[in-house]
Design goal:
mainly alpha
Length: 162
């Protein structure tokens, strides 16, 4: 079932990124709308393999105009709507290093979301286990209007001990 769901996810993304100048705007919009429907169907399965693949798609956001023009934002929203933070943390353990390296802003969004829902200790454990070479850069991106000062201080002290 997982392979089928991943294939359906990739089809949804293909549809969401679709725009063919040879087709009418209405025809193109029907294809894109079908992508939204398929993405939601796949996300509601709560399949961890789908979640892993969604994180992999984030790695290409800066390299693909269609992904950068709202598709990855849609993926992130679907993650928060359909997956629990235990699943998200499990995938972060696997994908955190590549996510920071390839899409620091998306890594910041997901990191902040984990902190906001009370998963700081889980996030901290993962942060210290992964030890990304770009962890300091991530902490700089997380700084926002003094909102995460306490957490950043803790993570910075942890990094000093690596």
């Amino acid at each position: 079932m997982a392979k089928k769901n991943v294939k359906r996810l990739m089809l949804a993304i293909e549809k969401l990124c679709h725009w063919d100048k040879a087709l009418s705007d209405d025809e193109n919009q029907r294809i894109v709308d079908g992508g939204f429907v398929l993405l939601e169907e796949v996300a509601t399965t709560k399949d961890s393999d789908v979640l892993c693949e969604m994180f992999d798609v984030f790695n290409n956001e800066d390299k693909d105009d269609a992904l950068a023009n709202g598709v990855c934002e849609t993926l992130e929203n679907e993650i928060y709507r359909h997956f629990d933070f235990s699943q998200i943390m499990n995938v972060l353990y696997q994908k955190f290093g590549s996510l920071i390296e390839n899409n620091i802003l998306r890594a910041r969004n997901i990191s902040c979301a984990c902190i906001n829902v009370g998963k700081f200790e889980d996030f901290r454990k993962m942060f210290n286990l992964v030890r990304s070479k770009d962890s300091a850069l991530l902490l700089d991106k997380i700084k926002y209007k003094d909102k995460y000062n306490k957490e950043i201080v803790i993570l910075t002290k942890d990094m000093a001990g690596w």
